[in-house]
Write a structure and sequence with these properties.
By secondary structure, the protein is of the alpha/beta class. The chain folds into 2 domains: about 150 residues, Aspartate Aminotransferase, domain 1 (Alpha-Beta Complex); about 240 residues, Type I PLP-dependent aspartate aminotransferase-like (Major domain) (Aspartate Aminotransferase, domain 2), CATH 3.40.640.10. Helices cover about 40% and strands about 15% of the residues. The strands form 3 sheets. It has a 7-stranded mixed β-sheet with strand order 2-8-7-6-5-3-4, sandwiched between helices. It has a 3-stranded antiparallel β-sheet with strand order 9-12-11. The protein has a two-stranded parallel ribbon with strand order 1-10. The structure holds pyridoxal-5'-phosphate. The site of pyridoxal-5'-phosphate (PLP) has 13 residues, from helix 5. Pyridoxal-5'-phosphate (PLP) binds next to helix 5.
Length: about 400
């Protein structure tokens, strides 16, 4: 038998379904079809000019060499100050590491902590990358369906039932991609009670959407609700979403010094430090003028409100208001079992998504990719005009079903 070039653990993971959906939409566009893509998960704004200026100044000043693996002292100080100012959390520089995006922080945290077969509890719907990252380092994702009726959130009894002796991590993303659901302080306290009874379970908090929320409140933090968890919590965040800096690739992890040190060793032997210029830009993002955060949040809210109304006016579709992030997780259960004009029955959310793409050129991502069906995720990180066009087309496609 010829041996595959590719290792077994890598053959088990799949490419990101949202990237695949975006590629499919782009291919159709290249063929000349009119496509409204509501797929991408990145802000459609330019990085604010004072941040770009900081990058240019860094280049001019010669900040073009290797930096410390954990990140420049300047950036780690900015992260520590941000965590203290915005989240009331105190971290020393030895407890913070800068990574190439939050994605790399999550992956490397798993890579340095999971033994083969160790379990990671992932509430579903989840960001598509989580289970595959766990699988890639030979861990076992344990996905727990969190239905719409529960606000797409994990309950304490679900958590208690999911914990085994093999559980290593609980992963929480609040506000969530794809649902926008966010835990309240009281919900965190209730989950915290379960966690305190199981000291072997660590918690990874993906806070990447903390600033994109629409109720005028600060996103509560598990560590403020349950400070006793501090030595078991790894905080993941970054500048990609808050400051429209997805291409700069700066994320970070803050948590127990031994995990941070192990990530440092791992990264120093693989990717090396993050881009020096991006680090200077990220420090400016965190230390500098924050008005972009407020302004962009207002735009996201306006879009969320508009799209929510348009979608909920379409018979067969419904969506509960997301607290944050820039997605709508649309329930398309009312379309399942219906028939398209070309006599095809829609059996699942994958069929619904293909029908929307083929019939009216709207690209969205099927709920199956996020672990909870029948839904599709629609991104509002695009202009109101495009969103309106997309919703009109969806309404037209739904009206043509029998
Ligand atoms: C929930 C969540 N976490 C992390 C990331 C990755 O962010 P970064 O660009 O910092 O790697 C994303 C990006 O889509 C995300 O949606």
């Amino acid at each position: 038998m010829v041996r595959s070039h590719i290792a077994e653990r890598v053959r088990r993971i799949k490419p990101s379904p949202s990237t695949a959906a975006a590629d499919r939409a782009n291919n159709l566009r290249r063929e000349g079809k009119s496509i409204v893509s509501l797929v991408v998960g990145e802000p459609d704004f330019d990085t604010p000019s004072h941040i770009r200026a900081a990058a240019m100044a860094a280049m001019e000043k010669g900040a073009t060499r290797y930096t410390l693996m954990a990140g420049t002292v300047e950036l780690r100080k900015a992260i520590a100050a941000k965590l203290a100012r915005e989240n009331r959390l105190q971290y020393g520089l030895n407890e913070i590491i800068v990574t190439s995006g939050a994605k790399s922080a999550i992956y490397n945290a798993f890579a340095v902590t999971l033994e083969p077969g160790d379990e990671v509890i992932i509430p579903a719907p989840y960001w598509v990358s989580y289970p595959d990252m766990v699988i890639a380092v030979e861990g076992k994702p344990v996905t727990i369906p969190c239905p719409e009726e529960a606000g797409f959130k994990l309950t304490p009894s679900q958590l208690a039932a999911a914990i085994t002796r093999q559980t290593r991590w609980l992963l929480i993303n609040s506000p969530s991609n794809p649902t926008g659901a966010a835990y309240t302080e009281a919900e965190y306290r209730a989950l915290g009670e379960v966690l305190l009874a199981h000291p072997h379970v660590m918690v990874m908090l993906d806070d990447i959407y903390e600033h994109i929320r629409f109720d005028g409140k600060m996103t509560p933090h598990l560590l403020n609700a349950v400070p006793a968890l501090r030595e078991r919590v790894l905080v993941i965040n970054g500048v990609s979403k808050t400051y429209a800096m997805t291409g700069w690739r700066i994320g970070y992890a803050a948590g127990p010094a031994d995990i941070v040190e192990a990530m440092n060793t791992m990264l120093s032997q693989s990717s090396g430090n993050c881009c020096s210029i991006s680090q200077a830009a990220a420090a400016e993002a965190l230390n500098g003028d924050q008005s972009f955060v407020t302004e962009s949040r207002a735009v996201y809210k306006q879009r969320r409100d508009a799209v929510l109304a348009w979608i909920n006016a379409i018979p067969g579709l419904s969506c509960i208001p997301p607290t944050g992030a820039f997605y709508l997780y649309v329930n398309c259960g009312g379309l399942i079992g219906r028939t398209t004009p070309s006599s095809e029955r829609l059996v699942d959310d994958g069929d619904v998504v293909m029908y929307l793409l083929d019939s009216v050129g709207v690209a969205v991502v099927a709920g199956a990719a996020y672990g909870l069906s029948p839904y599709f995720r629609l991104s509002t990180a695009t202009s109101l005009d495009i969103l309106e066009d997309g919703c009109r087309r969806i309404a037209k496609a739904v009206a043509a079903l029998t």
